[in-house]
């Protein structure tokens, strides 16, 4: 599975590199004009100061943009730059040449995501910040229970009486900076989630002030429906003039007779309430019934279906345009990327995506996946930020899901290893792009931030499981 890690790393690097340089276009331009100027050059810094001295905040860039590429060891990055896998003039290569590099780091132990990122955020180890693992057992909790390191009180809590600590033993950097009038933005950074943290149903750390910044985007959560593989063949499809009409009205034509699954490939339901998500069962109030149309987009006098359209038969096919988080039907070309599919009407703003991994020109073999459903937790104190992302970047995209390559999710037993591999790369690519877009959005909407902290889950998301 080495290749997966490899691809994940490179994908993450290229996209995040573009994010870095979007954040500092002035420096990027200078770099292009003058070439590398080495570690000691401070011209970029001077320029930032000049802008401040002019008294104008117009055009001011965030002072510090911190991007964590989870699990990306520096030697990986150097190796890939040297091999040309990462562009030699790309953002990471330039930062590597011009920036400062630590020869040796002392990693937090255990070197897990929650532990490391809370350590970075607080400047303390688990002894003080009380986050010893990604999952652990709080001593006041039941012996059978556990707590997520991402949803545990930073700096401890009071055991008796159970509640917030009157004297936390560690505090995130953003708390102190904001107390001093600085502006801090966190894009999916662990601990920056706007969540009230409870143990035994008692709040032990209210969101305010510890877990809130000036723009707080919580990391996504499971939307209640796991990934699933589907295998169909020609016999599952039939002609359906009403669907042809609807698709044509939406601007989609087929050069071979358009065919549609006669039965739904899956049904599920979601809650219209923002406090609940979705389920494979039909028990919730907003129902979905997914059918699939096959289209041949090539005018080559050959019957060679190449695109599948996934739509909710309960709502029908509408032309759009669609504004995020809405997507309308998912149009997925074989050989192309997954297409996101928003569960229209879900109160928690849940969505998934479809990906076609095998498609015979005559539909004798049709295999595709519906990735797992996710959403951004609608934590009340940061709801405006959550909706800013939902409405401008889109609902939380499917993450690289180890349950597919390990075939733990249903329906994938007949899929080839190559299909599964392609699928995993597809998930990594689109999810890293989504997280990078969130980071970019955070910077664009807060150009006067003093500190922007962006967390990117890859390549760690692949390394754990592949
Ligand atoms: Ca054709």
Automatic annotation (TrEMBL):
<protein>
    <submittedName>
        <fullName>Alkaline phosphatase family protein</fullName>
    </submittedName>
</protein>
<keyword id="KW-0732">Signal</keyword>
<dbReference type="Pfam" id="PF01663">
    <property type="entry name" value="Phosphodiest"/>
</dbReference>
<feature type="signal peptide">
    <location>
        <begin position="1"/>
        <end position="28"/>
    </location>
</feature>
<dbReference type="InterPro" id="IPR002591">
    <property type="entry name" value="Phosphodiest/P_Trfase"/>
</dbReference>
<dbReference type="InterPro" id="IPR017850">
    <property type="entry name" value="Alkaline_phosphatase_core_sf"/>
</dbReference>
<feature type="region of interest" description="Disordered">
    <location>
        <begin position="26"/>
        <end position="61"/>
    </location>
</feature>
<feature type="compositionally biased region" description="Basic and acidic residues">
    <location>
        <begin position="34"/>
        <end position="57"/>
    </location>
</feature>
């Amino acid at each position: 599975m080495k290749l997966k890690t490899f691809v994940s790393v490179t994908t993450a690097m290229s996209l995040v590199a573009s994010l870095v340089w979007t954040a500092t276009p002035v420096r990027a331009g200078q770099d292009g004009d003058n070439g590398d100027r080495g570690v000691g050059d401070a011209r970029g810094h001077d320029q930032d100061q000049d802008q401040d001295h002019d008294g104008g905040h117009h055009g001011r860039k965030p002072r510090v943009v911190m991007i964590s590429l989870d699990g990306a060891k520096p030697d990986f990055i150097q190796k890939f730059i040297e091999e040309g896998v990462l562009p030699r003039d790309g953002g990471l290569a330039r930062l590597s040449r011009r920036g400062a590099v630590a020869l040796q780091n002392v990693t937090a132990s255990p070197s897990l995501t929650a532990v490391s990122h809370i350590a970075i955020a607080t400047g303390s180890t688990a002894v003080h910040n009380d986050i010893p693992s990604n999952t652990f057992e709080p001593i006041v909790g039941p012996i059978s229970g556990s707590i997520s390191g991402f949803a545990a009180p930073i700096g401890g809590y009071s055991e008796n009486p159970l509640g917030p600590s009157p004297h936390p033993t560690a505090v995130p950097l953003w708390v102190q900076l904001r107390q001093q009038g600085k502006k801090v933005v966190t894009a999916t950074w662990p601990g920056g989630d706007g969540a009230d943290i409870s143990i035994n149903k008692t709040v032990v750390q209210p969101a305010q002030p510890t877990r809130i910044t000036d723009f707080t985007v919580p990391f996504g959560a499971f939307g209640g429906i796991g990934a699933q593989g589907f295998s169909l063949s020609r016999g599952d499809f039939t002609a359906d003039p009403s669907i042809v009409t609807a698709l044509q009205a939406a601007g989609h034509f087929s050069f071979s007779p358009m065919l549609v699954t006669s039965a739904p490939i899956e049904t599920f339901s979601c809650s219209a309430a923002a406090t609940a998500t979705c389920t494979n069962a039909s028990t919730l109030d907003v129902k979905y019934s997914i059918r699939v149309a096959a289209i041949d987009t090539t005018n080559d006098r050959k019957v060679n279906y190449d695109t599948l359209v996934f739509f909710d038969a309960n709502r029908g096919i509408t032309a759009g345009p669609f504004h995020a988080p809405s997507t309308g039907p998912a149009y997925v070309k074989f050989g192309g990327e997954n297409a996101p599919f928003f569960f229209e009407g879900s109160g928690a703003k849940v969505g998934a995506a479809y990906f076609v991994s095998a498609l015979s020109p005559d539909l004798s073999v049709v295999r595709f996946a519906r990735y797992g459903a996710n959403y951004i937790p609608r934590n009340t104190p940061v709801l405006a930020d959550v909706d800013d992302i939902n409405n401008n970047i889109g609902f939380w995209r499917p993450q690289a899901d180890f349950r597919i390559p390990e075939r733990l999710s249903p329906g994938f037993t007949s899929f080839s290893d190559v299909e599964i591999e392609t699928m995993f790369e597809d998930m990594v690519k689109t999810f890293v792009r989504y997280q990078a877009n969130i980071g970019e959005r955070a910077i664009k909407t807060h150009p006067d931030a003093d500190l922007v902290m962006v967390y990117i889950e890859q390549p760690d998301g692949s390394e754990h499981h592949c």
